[in-house]
Amino acid sequence: MSIPAGDVEVPALVRRLAGDAELVPVWRNGIGGLTFRAGDHYVKWGPLNTETTMADEAERLAWAAPHTPVPAVVEHGADASHEWLVTRALAGRSAVDPRWIADPATAVRAVGRGLRALHDALPVAECPFDWDVAARIAHAQRRGRQVPTELREPPPIDRLVVCHGDACVPNTLLDDGGAWVGHVDLGALGVADRWADLAVAAMSTEWNYGPGWADELVAAYGVDPDPVRQAYYRDLWNAT
């Protein structure tokens, strides 16, 4: 996943969805999907995805919106080959905006605090979505992935929360003062141990800011490092 560089061809459907708004490419994912800023909206477009769909994300955004800052859904749909999602823009910039790549200490702490706030805000008992280990392994196997036997027995649950599902640092938005203001890309949101998110968020600091920031994120979340759970959920992420 990356911020697009150079000229980006705008799909005809995206141009239609954006109307007269200026389109600014802001994100390219690993399967060829693109996200554009279009005035005060964002347009996500990409090939049909076997992992999470934009319809999944629209449903989860609508559920989470009363509890925590997430984009409001305007429209979503799909055809035979592609899907799309239009949302209203939230204030703030991604934690991997060049502004925050240059100040990882501020960004990492904001991501950790934002993830804790998300977990504290979303009501587990009311959540209709599951993201526990058994569900993830079953989903991976339906897609033809073989999950190692040693990952089939997770560590005891520390605390059940409604997890983001893709808590990598780009999916937290920060304001100009360096405080978290919202989350995006919630297509896998569901109930699981909080370390399923926390381990991945900590791991992703190395991809985006370089080594040495994982413990800082965990501390900002408000817990001590847990090497066993962190290692397990990192490996599960990579396997599924």
UniProtKB/TrEMBL annotation:
<dbReference type="GO" id="GO:0046872">
    <property type="term" value="F:metal ion binding"/>
</dbReference>
<keyword id="KW-0067">ATP-binding</keyword>
<dbReference type="Pfam" id="PF01636">
    <property type="entry name" value="APH"/>
</dbReference>
<dbReference type="GO" id="GO:0016773">
    <property type="term" value="F:phosphotransferase activity, alcohol group as acceptor"/>
</dbReference>
<keyword id="KW-0046">Antibiotic resistance</keyword>
<dbReference type="GO" id="GO:0046677">
    <property type="term" value="P:response to antibiotic"/>
</dbReference>
<keyword id="KW-0460">Magnesium</keyword>
<keyword id="KW-0808">Transferase</keyword>
<feature type="domain" description="Aminoglycoside phosphotransferase">
    <location>
        <begin position="50"/>
        <end position="229"/>
    </location>
</feature>
<dbReference type="InterPro" id="IPR024165">
    <property type="entry name" value="Kan/Strep_kinase"/>
</dbReference>
<protein>
    <submittedName>
        <fullName>Phosphotransferase</fullName>
    </submittedName>
</protein>
<feature type="active site" description="Proton acceptor">
    <location>
        <position position="166"/>
    </location>
</feature>
<keyword id="KW-0547">Nucleotide-binding</keyword>
<dbReference type="GO" id="GO:0016301">
    <property type="term" value="F:kinase activity"/>
</dbReference>
<feature type="binding site">
    <location>
        <position position="185"/>
    </location>
    <ligand>
        <name>Mg(2+)</name>
    </ligand>
</feature>
<dbReference type="InterPro" id="IPR002575">
    <property type="entry name" value="Aminoglycoside_PTrfase"/>
</dbReference>
<dbReference type="InterPro" id="IPR011009">
    <property type="entry name" value="Kinase-like_dom_sf"/>
</dbReference>
<keyword id="KW-0479">Metal-binding</keyword>
<keyword id="KW-0418">Kinase</keyword>
<dbReference type="GO" id="GO:0005524">
    <property type="term" value="F:ATP binding"/>
</dbReference>
<feature type="binding site">
    <location>
        <position position="171"/>
    </location>
    <ligand>
        <name>Mg(2+)</name>
    </ligand>
</feature>
<comment type="similarity">
    <text>Belongs to the aminoglycoside phosphotransferase family.</text>
</comment>
<dbReference type="InterPro" id="IPR051678">
    <property type="entry name" value="AGP_Transferase"/>
</dbReference>
